[in-house]
Amino acid sequence: MAFVQYDKETLEILYTIDKEEEGAIEIPNEYLVSSNVFDCLKEFKIQKAKEHMDELYRRYLKKYPEVERQSFKDKAREAALVMKNKASNIDTPLEDTPYLSALTANDVTARDALAEAIDAKIKEYAALEAQGYALRDTIKNATKVNELLDILL
User: Fold this and answer.
1) What are φ and ψ of residue 3, in 5° steps?
2) Domains in the chain: how many in total?
3) Of 132, 15, 110, 51, whose CA–CA distance to 25 is shortest?
4) How far apart are CA 131 and CA 148, in angstroms?
5) Is residue 27 part of a domain?
6) Interval 54-94: pLDDT, tens
7) Which residue in 18, 44, 84, 97 is a FRET match for 153, CA 20 to 30 A apart?
């Protein structure tokens, strides 16, 4: 880590030091790729946001066993079909959802309940992904050093 002193008007890095000093910003050395403190800080914050989202995603995945994660795309596709048809008051034939049907011993009620549970997982994952996009966009849309410093990761 380096502490960076910069010109508040031009945002040009004046010098780096290895200890904290009043007015200095802490930025890892590997992100000091520009003479502009804003550019360096933005790259650092984007990387930290990626790491943060990766950690949230890992925690999300830990809730489910590997076998369940491996088949999620197939189950999600079938669940989406069931939910779409249900919204239109159409019964989905069991043969259109072979994976979910097999998991529920061809019981339509159980298959539909499983589809709803999978749909809830999809929405939970989508909310997590949307959170990541919002964080990334907040960083990318920042125009001032203080805006970036206010983003805590």
Assistant:
1) -105, 130
2) 1
3) 15
4) 17
5) no
6) 999 999 999 999 999 999 999 999 999 999 999 999 999 99
7) 18
Determine contact, residues 43/31, Cβ cutoff 8 Å. Answer: yes
The CA distance from 92 to 94, in Å, is 6
Q: How far, in Å, CA of 148 to CA of 25, rounded?
A: 11
**C-alpha to C-alpha distance for 152 and 139, rounded to whole angstroms:** 11
Look up residue 19 and give its two tokens.
Answer: 């200890």
The percentage of residues in the chain with a pLDDT greater than 70, rounded to a whole number, is 100
Q: Which among 87, 86, 72, 82 has a CA at the least distance from the CA of 125?
A: 72
pTM of the predicted model as reported, rounded to 2 decimal places: 0.81
Bridge partners (DSSP) listed for residue 4: 16, 25
Residue span of the structural domain in which 139 resides:
42-145
Residue 134 lies in a domain: yes
The tokens of 144 are what? Answer: 């001032």
Count of positions (residues) in the chain: 153
Asked if residue 67 is part of any domain, the answer here is: yes
106 within 8 A of 94, measured Cβ to Cβ? yes
Rounded distance between C-alpha atoms, residue 41 and residue 32, angstroms: 8
The DSSP H or E segment spanning 85 is helix 72-87
